[in-house]
Task: structure prediction
Amino acid sequence: MPEGGARPPRVLFVIPRLEPGGSEGQLTELVLRAHPDRLQSTIATLYPTASRRHLDRLTEHGVPVHVLSGGRGRTRALGGALARLPGLIRSSGADVVYAWLEEAAAVAVPSAKLRRVPVAVARRNVCGSSLERHAPLRIAIRRIEASAAVVTANSRAGAEEAVRRGIDPPRVRVVPNCHEPLPALPQPAGPRVRLGCMAHLRPEKGHARLLEALALLPEELDWRADLAGSG
Result:
């Protein structure tokens, strides 16, 4: 809580979309818990969001959500977002801009610097964006990230990857997801161990690493892995 009756800081969060994904859900929960007493939050999305799941909860809580583009093609949408975000930073009176994920950072960091507002970047994985398959975009995204005042990661592995990406270690902070602890699952009823993984079937989700780890399991271990997701 702000001390001495001071106004809570105004934070403009920027994220590609607010679909029902992991990072999107974590951002929504963070804002719902902090707004308006600890943070005065505004959210900007680079693209339109089809699902109302997070949008309705944020609206009911009084959190403004702005869409920065019409979503007509990725390149055109990013250009529109880059053109509109500086104006939103000004009109929202943001004290800090906090960009979640690589695409959002590519738009938010230069926009915040243009308005001379401090900017932080949230790294939510170790694989990076699919855009980084293209060398020029990979170089640009990583240079932009490295110029932020602070880069947060939600795991030690994420923080180590941020340093490998060229971010100065003193600028990296680990901020755990802080999910509520759940009771331990019961032991398997039989000798077989069953694993489950639910995520979009995209390269950056880490399925290849999971399969590599499974290949190292002892041959005598009886196990089954179920992977679910679209893509």
User: Anything to note?
Assistant: The radius of gyration is 19 Å. The helical segments are 22-34, 53-60, 74-92, 102-114, 135-146, 156-164, 207-214. The longest helix spans residues 74-92. The chain has a mean pLDDT of 90.
